[in-house]
Amino acid sequence: MIVDDVNYNSPWATPGLSVEVTFLSDSKPHLGFALLLAMTMALGPLALDTYLPAFPAMALSLGTQVHQIALSISIYVFTLAFGQLVAGPLADRFGRAAVMLSGLSLFGLASFCIWRFQHYEALIALRALQAFGAGWAMVCVPALVRDRLSGREAAKFFSLIGLIMVAAPALAPSLGSLLLEAFGWPSIFVFLGAYALLLVLLLKAVIFRGQSTRPQGPHLSLWQRYGAVLATRPALRFMWLQALAFSVMMLFITHSSFIYQEHFGVSPGLFALLFGANIVLMLVMNLTNRRLLNHFEPQQILRWTLSLQALGIVLLILVMAFKPQLWLFLPAMMLTVGALGAITPNIQACYMDYFHEHGATAAALMGAVQFSIAGALSGLSSLLPESVSAIVLAQAVCSALCLVLIWTRKNAQAA
After folding, report:
1. Taking a C-beta distance cutoff of 8 angstroms, is the pair 247, 398 a contact?
2. pTM, whole model, 2 decimals?
3. Which CATH superfamily groups domain 23-414?
4. Among 99, 190, 209, 323, whose CB has the most other CB atoms within 10 angstroms?
């Protein structure tokens, strides 16, 4: 299937590029660009999930407790949101390349510093610096897609990116567990730093080859750009949907070590496998979504998949209420997390379709709202009673709000 049969001299709307790209869904260039963008987006799950199995070892090494190490997740998510808010207007003004590559370099530097300075206070500060750089890199990805695609084709490409990067959350805990056992927990951050620097080289050589350093966009202030995005009211519903649906997964990620290792009593190695199992259905949903997009609009699929996520949470509530056993809990959580495989690409496509201009600023606002709300909820969830049921009920609140947003009469007609 042809997505775009035109050759572009400046692919991905990044002025100054000299590489020609034919946008064919089955072509190697198409998959190559998707792979690099997916690898960039994978910074999120890699930075969040790779060190999860190391929490007990890190707490022991740094002289603190596991829940204090878990605080670094919330700090990372909050700062990621702030980094995107700063980077979005800059990427619209000065181009994607300078912002994206600078962010990756900062992420890599912070990662190596965590390896060198093994103190709890340094961990917290450097995780914030890591997140700030990651925000600069990740905010450019939706903007690059929107520069060329819209509607169903954008949803398919976002789904392709999701399909490629689904391996990151599935493999990250296992990779972290292997590095932990072989070299100790600091090696996890050496890996993250090397990964970021590899991305710098690949992006510069492939996507941003010949990139001009001159300003690329109109000279508008940060407030003017954000004002234009906020004035596009129909798009804002999708921003809130993304924040709430993502919060469902973030609540699980934040407490996954407690759920599996403490509540159900599994080993670090088995924890990595169980965590990865939650991503299996995400892959299935992503593949299914790509096929459904041949017949249905992204908004229609979004309503169905958000309802499917809610069903998974209902099953989790029933399991914890009547038969709280791991073999029943796992498939219900797989359904809850896995639904995001189809939810996220459709939300991104629906939202970004409104922004032919100010794409990076729009992506920044969406990312900032998504990560700040998810970070706040994951942080506040530490105040809940220390039980799996309390965590599931917090997920249920987020899912219920999603259903209200997508299924109310006015919104359903708009979709």
Report:
1. yes
2. 0.74
3. MFS general substrate transporter like domains (1.20.1250.20)
4. 99
